[in-house]
Design a protein that fits this description.
The structure holds two protein chains of two kinds.
Chain A lengths: L11 H7 L6 H18 L34 H5 L5 E2 L2 E2 L7
Chain B lengths: L3 H10 L4 H19 L2 E4 L1 H16 L10 E5 L26 H8 L3 E6 L33 H8 L5 E6 L5 H7 L2 E4 L19 E6 L2 H11 L31 E5 L9 H16 L3 E5 L7 H16 L18 H12 L2 H14 L4 H25 L2 E5 L15 H6 L5 H6 L2 E9 L5 E8 L4 H14 L13 H7 L2
Parallel strand pairs in B: 2-3, 2-4, 7-8, 7-9
Antiparallel strand pairs in B: 1-3, 4-6, 5-6, 5-10, 9-11, 10-11
């Protein structure tokens, strides 16, 4: 990694767009300052030599857990729809996505 | 304020009923929760119905480790038919369709599910001030936070409004509030308790655990909840020990080798916390423990590693909140993208947004290797530090946090400052260890100081033994918070 001074700061509006989350102008200004501080802090990991070190995805000594592919009871349609913000005819209502 | 095991003994003897216990707690909630504000909701009728059922079951000869004992539940865990809001506007009105496995285990053991406790929104924070709904106060000082993110659970246990509670711990969210509120909190090893039904924050770090008034209760609740669950493929198939039966009657620290990490006792540690923890280590020595100095050389990189890994996982987990199947949906009409953009902007609070931003950033094209992959490699180095340390000692003894509870509002506006307070707790999550927090003293201002025992993966029996032995030698856990239920009466009437 390059040194801190070479790093571009996070463009919070661009990242918020990737996260599908609007920011208003005030939030964007506050977050820009805060995120610059946080990113600058986490960048200290670049000091370490991690050549040849295996990454850890999780700390448990288990991998590739399989189970029998059996049908099991799950939520009913009614239960699955019970918390929907909008529903009709047993389905979730969403904005039109195909013209 | 009795413990679960003491109440269970009284129930067995017929000295009281579960209904009476629940009524007493409802009165305590009535008395102090307007000030403490630890509960988001209490369903008194449902709790009394469960208590009546428990009393009826006992009358027919049934028993159980928690039969008739009320337990409060952090708002991040699903309890069928109850709200599960994660203290977020995003999930206002959400009703859980099923029980989390840990909750189902409590039910099967006879526990009465009392109410839902406040927390930092989606468990993101260290003060419980990030709740979208209310600020919880520390029963030891109303000007101070209870810690977080399981601050509501810690506060209601310390205030005598619950016998025990469940919390969740991703980077210290059980242990730090337990430390700040003078109660006991156990984060089990990764995989020891099923995460099914726990609203996910960071899936490789999250664990559910008990928050109690003493170590014996923590052992009891862990024994009820631990074990493999086909609904969580990361739960460990290892057999569950009888943690409570394994506790020492006396002398549990004799011959145990405890490691003191040099890096945890350096600069940045509050002098009163250092004094209390050093005195606790001295007590462990008096109890027969051998104390050795150990080194965890990558400690200074733990916070950066944790926030990259936790936020990356959070950004993926929280993408499910899209305003379609459940959760908040914007009232403003628009296309699908507009629906996501607005629903998420309106539903999430500032700290959740910051963490989604950091997580999205470290996973984004061009930055993944420099941040996320690198943090996963440093996580390996941190794990190796602990592997080496546990070759030299059976358990690690250290502070829970560098300071006692923060003043309300003290960390507002500076998220990084709040993150740095997690330095002694995040490592257990990164390395998959278990950790036990318990009270070991007070500051001059009367705030509790927490002691932490860290054990290797599946070393719960060991840290519980150490904690129980320390607790038997001291009386910190029997002190009562000045703002706990019944204290005003006690002071006035000498009851």
């Amino acid at each position: 990694m390059a040194s801190n001074s070479d790093q571009q700061s996070m463009d919070v509006n661009y990242i918020a767009r990737l996260a599908r989350m609007n920011l208003d102008a005030l939030e964007a200004r506050q977050f820009q300052t805060q995120m610059d501080g946080i990113v600058d802090y986490v960048r200290q990991l670049s000091e370490l030599d991690v050549e040849g070190v295996e990454p850890t995805a999780h700390a448990a000594p288990i991998q590739n857990v399989f189970r029998e592919d059996l049908a099991q009871p799950g939520l009913t349609q009614e239960q699955a729809l019970a918390n929907a913000p909008a529903q009709s005819g047993g389905q979730f209502i969403v904005p039109k996505i195909v013209e | 304020m009795l413990t679960a095991h003491e109440l269970q003994d009284r129930l067995v003897r017929g000295d009281c009923s579960s209904v009476e216990i629940v009524q007493e707690l409802l009165a305590a909630i009535q008395e102090v929760d307007g000030t403490i504000r630890g509960y988001l909701s209490v369903d008194a009728e449902a709790a009394l119905a469960q208590a009546r059922a428990a009393d009826a079951a006992r009358a027919t000869g049934r028993g159980g480790p928690l039969l008739g004992i009320p337990v409060a539940i952090k708002d991040v865990l699903n309890v069928a038919g109850q709200p599960c809001g994660c203290a977020s506007k995003m999930l206002r009105g959400y009703v859980a369709p099923y029980d989390a496995t840990a909750v189902a285990a409590l039910r099967a053991a006879g526990a009465v599910l009392l109410g839902r406790t406040n927390m930092d929104e989606f468990a993101m924070g260290s003060t419980t001030e990030n709740s979208a709904f209310q600020v919880t106060r520390n029963p030891w000082s109303l000007e101070h936070v209870p810690g977080g993110s399981s601050g509501g659970s810690a506060a209601v246990v310390a205030a005598g409004e619950a016998v025990a509670a469940l919390g969740s711990d991703t980077g210290g969210s059980i242990r730090q509030p337990a430390g700040f509120c003078g109660c006991v909190g156990l984060k089990p090893s990764y995989g020891r308790v099923s995460r099914y039904g726990l609203t996910a924050f960071a899936s490789s770090l999250d664990q559910i655990g008990p928050m109690t008034r003493d170590v014996r209760d923590a052992a009891r609740l862990l024994g009820v909840m631990a074990g493999h669950d086909p609904h969580d493929s990361t739960s460990l198939p290892a057999p569950v020990e009888d943690y409570e039966a394994g506790l020492p009657v006396s002398g549990g620290l004799r011959g145990m080798r405890l490691g003191m990490p040099r890096e945890y006792f350096g600069g940045g540690l509050d002098t009163e916390v250092e004094a209390a923890v050093s005195a606790a280590v001295e007590e462990c020595r008096r109890q027969g423990a051998e104390v050795v100095e150990i080194s965890l050389p990558h400690t200074r990189y733990a916070i950066a590693t944790y926030y990259i890994v936790a936020c990356a996982e959070a950004s993926a987990n929280l993408s499910r909140f899209d305003g379609v199947r459940y959760g908040h949906r914007t009232a403003v009409a628009g296309d699908a993208t507009e629906l996501y953009l607005r629903s998420r902007a309106e539903g999430f609070g500032a700290e959740v947004k910051r963490r989604i931003l950091l997580g999205t950033y470290v996973l984004s094209s061009g930055y993944h290797d420099a941040y996320y992959l690198r943090a996963q490699k440093v996580r390996t180095l941190i794990r190796r530090d602990f592997d080496a340390a546990f070759e030299r000692c059976a358990a690690i003894v250290c502070p829970v946090a560098p300071t006692a509870a923060y003043r309300l509002g003290a960390t507002g506006g500076d998220p990084l400052k709040m993150y740095l307070g997690d330095v002694f707790t995040v490592t257990a999550n990164l390395a998959g260890l278990c950790g036990l927090a318990l009270p070991c003293g007070f500051t001059a201002a009367g705030l509790p100081v927490g002691l932490q025992f860290l054990g290797p993966a599946l070393g719960e029996a060991r840290v519980l033994r150490a904690g129980r032995a320390y607790e038997q030698a001291t009386a910190w856990h029997t002190r009562r918070a000045p703002h706990a239920a019944g204290m005003a009466r006690t002071e006035a009437g000498g009851k």
